Structure formats: C-alpha cells, structure tokens
C-alpha cells in the first residue's frame, strides 16, 4: 500500500530516514516521495542520508525558548520558563511537550504549507512517526496528528518509540501523555518498545540505528508488501484494504516477524521448476510445505514483538507471507491462519502474500491489532502518575490546568468527533487503584488536562477501561471482553520473552 510519512522530532526524523533507506534497499516504493520531517532543532536533519532537504521542516525559530542550533552536548545554563523543571539540556524544545505543542500551534500556517508538498490522494494512509517521550515528538506530534485527522479522509496512524526504563521519569511521563493523546485520535498506534529491543550493555543512543533498522524491516514487510513487482501474479496477494481493515479497530498494535531460508538445493529447485511447468503432481511436498509455513508463522508470533504484549488480547490479526510464490502454497496459508486463530483466540485473521520470485527466504509478518494487555504501557502510566504526584508535591511546577495546550485542543476535537471513544479506551490515564477506589478522579486529571473535558465522570467508574456502554467504542468493548479472559497470560509470557 502507499503511505505518506511524517517524522516529528529526532526519533521521527531518523526513523523516517531509515524507512526511506529500506525502500531503496528493498525496491519497494511505498511512499512515492510523500514524506516530511518536522523538528524544532536542526541536528537530526544533519544526520539524514535519504530524506530530501526540502522535506525537512524546521519550526520554532520565532520562539525564544527554542534552542534550534544548540550542539547536543552543549548544556549551557537554561533559565527560561521552558526549563523550569529538570529538563535535560537538549536542543529544540528540550523535552518540553507543552512548548512543543505551543510552537506547533503558533506555526500551523508554516506546517500547513509544508503539508501541501504531500499528496494525500496518492496514498492509502498517512503515518506520523515520533519518539513518544520527546518534547517535539509528543507536543508537535499531537498538533500535527490533529491537523492531519482534520484535513485527511484517509486513516492516520502513529508509529513511535517508547522510552526505555533507564530514561528519565520526565520522558516516561511525556510518553504516557503521548499514548493518552495519540490513541483516541489516531486510527491506530504502533509503538516500538525501546526497552525490549535495547541491550543493557550499551547506551540506548548507540543502538538507535539498529532498532530503527528492525522497525523499518517490519514496517516495510507490513505496509510496503506488494509494492516491489506489481507484475507478479498471485491470487492471495496482500490487499491494502486488508491492512487497513485489520488496523481499523484502533488502539495499540504490535508486529511479529520471522524468516526461513527456502530450499535452494538442486533437488528443491528442480521440484519447484517441475511444479511451475506443471510437470509435477499437484504439489507433492505440500505436506512439508504446510508444516514449514506453520513453523514459520509460529516463530513470528513467538518472536520479540515491536511492542511485547499478550497476543490473546488482540482483536484482529493479519499475516503476510513474503517469498517465492512457488514456496507459498494455499495449504500452507490456511495452516498458518488456523494456527493464528488458535493462538490468539480471534477468528478475525486475514492473510495475504507478497510474491518475491527471486527471494531466498520466506518471511512471515504478523500484525496484532488493538492489543490491550501491554505491561509496558501499564508501567509507563504508573511511572507517569508517580512522577506527576512528585511534581504536584513540589508545588506544582507543571500547571496541569493549562499544560499541553495543543494536546488539549486535540482532545477537545477528539471528544467532539467521538464523544465516548476516549473514556472507553483501555489506555486511560487512570491513576492508581487506590485513587479509583476512593473515587478520586484526580489521578486522571493531573496527567493530562484533556481529562477535564470528558473523562471526569468515567475516570472513576471505568478504572480498567472495561466500560461497555457501547457508543463509539463497540470495538473496545470487544477488546474488553478479550482482556477479561482470565487465562490470557500464557501466550504473552512466551511471545514477549522469546527472542528472535
Ligand atoms: N528507536 C528510537 N528511539 C529514539 C530515537 N531517538 C530518540 N528515541 C526515543 O525517543 C525519545 C524522544 O527523543 P527525541 O526524538 O530526541 O525527542 P524529540 O522529539 O526530538 O523532542 P525533544 O525532547 O524536543 O528533543 C527518546 O527518549 C528515546 O526514547 C531513535 O532514533 N530511535
Ligand atoms: Mg529533539
């Protein structure tokens, strides 16, 4: 399918650049050049290899609080209001999502001009790409997402990195707010858990490139499947509508991925040739073939996921098999699909293939859509709530009544469009259980001001997101049923712990 990409902040810029590189390397053209990157500091633009310069949009130069050209390690004294809390002295908006949202709001005309460079009629969907813990990623990202949702008819997805456990509480707090803002507004959110993918022996910043490459591989296998050689015929070819249908339930999605070498021995090649020429019995090795595909799909669902989660909490599943058409039999497909139905407990499993005649391996990419049992997100929220309490105790350095102006606008709009969507979503900022039992809705409010608008009534009565009062959230009601399934934990243990 065709996708436009909008990188925001440093992580967004690097990830989009990596996706474009992967496009060149794999010969899958899925953006048609419909890309942009927005940043409040110039450094990350200097690191790009593939992203065209005219598509790198620097914003914030009218703001005195924005350090556009500060070297990353030049941590000069910061006395402006944006750095009232313990900011890391990075360039741009220095980790401050409120400032990020303010800058984006002020520079909407400039942002809109840049958006004209992208043709939304040429693509099936748009995707905002950002580091959730970034002041730019979260702040500018929220405003951009809101803007794209208001001007586009096509789905708008969000892809982004979650901060690792050893990053600051402030980053975790920002990321939790980003999840809180992005999930109700975007058509689907695909977080990448930096913590799960980073090795503890090395600084995270040194591993970005590797993690981004992993992300690019999965994203292209999923979204760019079928964009390499439209001439190759396949009756099971993956259809963009299937990807969009799978993601249409919204919420958080996760991707699994695995490959196996195909039989390139003379014997294997001969068998395939005979089959192609119609000289062999009807797929004599179908049995082995189906078993192999089943094994492959199993390793994909047991692989380390982009966002480790309990796969039984998913609503919809999509599997894409990429490889030589002669190696992917219909029987193999059905076996793989059946396995996914069994393992995830959902019958909503779609499948398609990407015929790559010259490939030496078969790859299975599995998309789990609207997963609700995600320990990492719970952890982030807990950290964020604790951090917010500390801040409040320290005489409320962050004024929660006025914070994240842009995101407030986002939430207000979202609640107009889908009144109950937000309050029904399992990713509420719901404070601690203790607070909920006390009927204290404040935990929700403190973290994100948009809680004021629509969540106060539900923050207490739907603490676990099990609101099933229908309306906009039929789907999340479904997912709630899935999460209530008491034994939905075994698969998670395997899928998130097993490494590729
Ligand atoms: N996977 C991955 N994660 C990244 C990368 N760069 C940053 N991150 C993550 O994203 C978070 C936000 O960092 P940045 O992208 O630098 O922040 P920003 O959006 O530029 O916003 P500022 O705070 O204003 O600099 C970090 O805390 C990391 O968790 C990257 O290249 N790859
Ligand atoms: Mg930055």
UniProtKB/TrEMBL annotation:
Residue numbers spanned by region Disordered: 68-99, 412-500
Subcellular localization(s) per the UniProt record: Cytoplasm
Basic and acidic residues compositional bias, start-end: 424-443
GO biological process assignments: cell division; regulation of cell shape
A single GO cellular-component term on record: cell division site
Family matches, as InterPro entries: CetZ, CetZ_C, FtsZ/CetZ, Tubulin/FtsZ-like_C, Tubulin/FtsZ_GTPase_sf, Tubulin_FtsZ_GTPase
Domain of life: Archaea
Principal location class: cytoplasm
Stretches assigned to the Tubulin/FtsZ GTPase domain: 2-230
Keywords associated with the record: Cell cycle, Cell division, Cell shape, Cytoplasm, GTP-binding, Nucleotide-binding
Function: Involved in cell shape control.
UniProt family annotation: Belongs to the CetZ family.
UniProt-recorded name of the protein: Tubulin-like protein CetZ
Biological source species: Halonotius aquaticus
